[in-house]
Specification:
Elements lengths: L10 E15 L3 H6 L19 E15 L3 E5 L6 H8 L7 E6 L2 E2 L4 H5 L2 E4 L11 H11 L4 H14 L16 H14 L4 E5 L7 H18 L2 E5 L3 H7 L2 E6 L2 E6 L1 H8 L8 H9 L16
Parallel strand pairs: 3-8, 3-9, 6-7, 7-8
Antiparallel strand pairs: 1-2, 1-4, 4-5, 9-10
Helix pairs in contact: 4-5, 4-6, 5-6, 9-10
Bound molecules: adenosine-5'-triphosphate (ATP) and magnesium ion.
């Protein structure tokens, strides 16, 4: 199937006005009328609302961007801004309502299998056979992609070692491992099959500082030595600043900025001192940090 379609050698990902609506139950009328206060009206004052009323909400709203081959591209945004939905659209787990995306020139709607062979997704909801060991899970995952035999075993050992997974855990059932360790196995599984576009949804969330460093170093190594292109979401602005070549900021499903971390910092700087990427994030999304006394923390820069 792949042989029939020439791959685009330079554009790893082209996302073109992609849009996804979810039909969410309407909040009760009294909540909509009262807005943010959300205080329950007195008994007997509740207006009647038809059960099951739904309204479409755009979780990903006309988003367009491109990722060049070999880039580490960060997607930043507050909780619920649409990052995971965007990744699920690109990895063909969800169907877009509008727009399209191409992975190395292959349209996600036209050739799902072709796209699946070029990508690998890691997310916090990674599914495993919980009774099986990391090694068994990895080899099963590799087999699905046609990687079998000693080659798969050697690569599995290599990657698990590289990610700092202790050898004593290789044969333990997955269900006995901590969440952070399971997260590493999920990452190892994505790397095992050497896809050329990795979609990493918060790969370092829940990892200890040492493990975060191992994972970041491995991501950079994959880009530099294995011709991988990486799309990563993270809530860690320092991480994004350090490893991402470019970032996109999304808010309420809409793309509000793209550029190198440096460009974004310069875009909001009105003095000599360059702000941090966290300042940029707060500036663009309006998400204000609140300190312990409930006071708003001023932006630096
Ligand atoms: N399957 C679904 N059905 C209905 N609504 C959904 C579904 N998945 C996500 N949503 C909604 O879409 C919006 C975007 O969710 P999404 O998980 O993409 O956000 P996110 O940016 O990944 O957030 P987080 O940083 O918390 O992981 C949210 O309002 C969420 O409630
Ligand atoms: Mg998410």
């Amino acid at each position: 199937m792949l042989a029939k379609r020439p791959l685009d050698p330079q554009q790893a990902l082209v996302v073109d006005v992609i849009t996804k609506y979810f039909h969410l139950p309407k909040p009760p009328l009294w909540k909509r009328l009262l807005g943010a206060k959300e205080t329950l009206p007195a008994p007997g004052m509740l207006p009647t609302v038809k059960n099951g009323a739904k309204e479409p909400v755009a979780a990903v709203d006309h988003v367009s961007f491109t990722v060049a081959r070999g880039e580490i591209f960060g997607v930043l945004g507050p909780n619920g801004s649409g990052k995971s939905t965007l990744i699920r659209l690109i990895s063909t787990l969800l169907k877009a309502d509008k727009g399209s995306a191409k992975v190395f020139g292959i349209d996600i709607a036209e050739d799902e299998m072709g796209v699946k062979q070029l990508i690998s997704r890691v997310s916090v909801d990674a599914a495993f056979f919980k009774k099986l060991s990391p090694m068994e899970n990895l080899l099963y995952g590799a087999r699905l992609y046609g990687v079998t035999g000693p080659q798969a075993t050697v690569r599995a050992y290599e990657i698990m070692g590289r990610l700092g997974l202790k050898r004593s855990t290789y044969a333990e059932p997955m269900e006995e491992m901590s969440r952070g360790m399971q997260q590493k196995v999920a990452i190892a599984r994505a790397f095992l099959t050497s896809p050329i576009l990795l979609l990493l949804d918060e790969p370092t969330t829940g990892l200890d500082p040492r493990s975060k460093r191992d994972v970041r170093a491995f991501i950079e190594e994959l880009r530099d030595s294995h011709d991988a292109t990486i799309l990563i979401t993270t809530h860690d602005m320092e991480e994004a600043d350090v490893i991402c070549d470019r970032v996109a900021v999304i808010h309420n499903g809409k793309l509000v900025a793209t550029g190198t971390p440096e460009e974004l910092k310069r875009s909001i700087s009105n003095s000599g001192k360059l702000p941090t990427l966290e300042d940029v994030f707060i500036h663009l999304t309006g998400e204000q940090l609140i300190d312990v006394d409930g006071a708003k923390v001023p932006l630096s820069g």
